[in-house]
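Reminder to self: keep the SMILES exactly as supplied, no canonicalising. Ligand is 2-acetamido-2-deoxy-beta-D-glucopyranose.
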Amino acid sequence: MFILPALLYLKVLPLFGQRLYHFIVRNKSRPPHDGGAALSQLVLTRPCTLLGLAGPMRMPNACCVTNCRGNYDAENKVAVFSFPKVEELKLKWIQAIPRRDLVVTKNTKVCEKHFTDDDIERVSTFYKESTGETLIAKLKKPRLKKGATPKIFPHCPSYLSSTKVARDGPEDVHIVPVSHIVAEDLFTLIKKIILALEEIGFKGMGIVTDNNSINRKAVSNFNNPPQFQAQYQHPADEKRPLFCLIDSVHLIKCVRNNWINQKNGYFMYYPQFEGEENAVQTASFSILRKLYDIESSELLKFGIGLTRKALWPTNLERQNVSLALKIFSSNLVKGLLELGEKHNLMHYGGTANFLNIFCTWWDIANVKTVTWGNHLD
Ligand SMILES: *[C@@H]1O[C@H](CO)[C@@H](O)[C@H](O)[C@H]1NC(C)=O
Ligand SMILES: *[C@@H]1O[C@H](CO)[C@@H](O)[C@H](O)[C@H]1NC(C)=O
Ligand SMILES: *[C@@H]1O[C@H](CO)[C@@H](O)[C@H](O)[C@H]1NC(C)=O
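Structure tokens returned for the bound complex:
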């Protein structure tokens, strides 16, 4: 039995707790590389589970940590903290919080339950010169000490705390077993699902698909006349883009290759997505090689998982995705943040940030079908 790869992922904006929903089209007995030819005409459409998906609206100031009820209701009133502005510290928070789909905006908060008492200041002391007394006043709002990071995550599933398997599972918004389907029908279905999701408050960002010809053809219908593009006008809002990515595995290798191919000392320049507009950040591949040298000469290893092959891949090795993933790895991000300053690695913050963006992207874009390998009842 074979399964068609997942076809549509809709990324949902942070307002709703940024989760990933996807739509799978598959044919139980489709041979692996049969193209789209065997698929035509919809056989069955399972009742859409769409409406069950929106979940409760998030309270403002709700804590972003998985399973934390901080500020969700009146009984759980807690103080919350925004993410730090300093990029390096902010990344440390992101790394610490066991949640894979975390996207931080200025409204993303972490509540006091995740900090140790040592990290939180609840009172302020004043020295009153006139009387020589030291006064202690309770702060209206507790504040964090310098450099504090969240450390306590009592209700997170343990798989999220481990660095290995870590991702909130995707959810099906729609499952459509088909025996035959034509691109136009598939397009109509994709569009319907995107519109339905938008209607209940989600924001569809894009579609991730493999390079199957029927998928490509279906997606190209978002343009009139049909034409395959990386970006379309969003069917729910003409001012927004709807992105289409083909083959996330291929893309992540391309990003790595382009980076290595930079002739300017392996610097990749990229826009800073938050904060200052028009600011440019730099990611340096050469400091990854330096980091590798540092690691291999030190007795106590940080475990960043870099290998020679990952850093100097041959043309053949550039095809190997697990080598690319040794570069886009959260261990490496941690390693950079820990060792960057100590070893004076130029652009380590920008590089860690760049890697982190693609780690997050990979977690989102590379979701396989939840029921991969299972049969539909
Ligand atoms: C899946 O595709 C095959 C052709 O590859 C076709 O013979 C079969 O009927 C399809 N299965 C279903 C469940 O539609
Ligand atoms: C997808 O397949 C088409 C036709 O086989 C090919 O021209 C195109 O380059 C492929 N695109 C990607 C991103 O692999
Ligand atoms: C890809 O690289 C990994 C890590 O070096 C290795 O274990 C694996 O065998 C390689 N895969 C192929 C197909 O060469």
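Points to follow up:
Residues 250-366 form one domain.
The first helix runs from residue 87 to 96.
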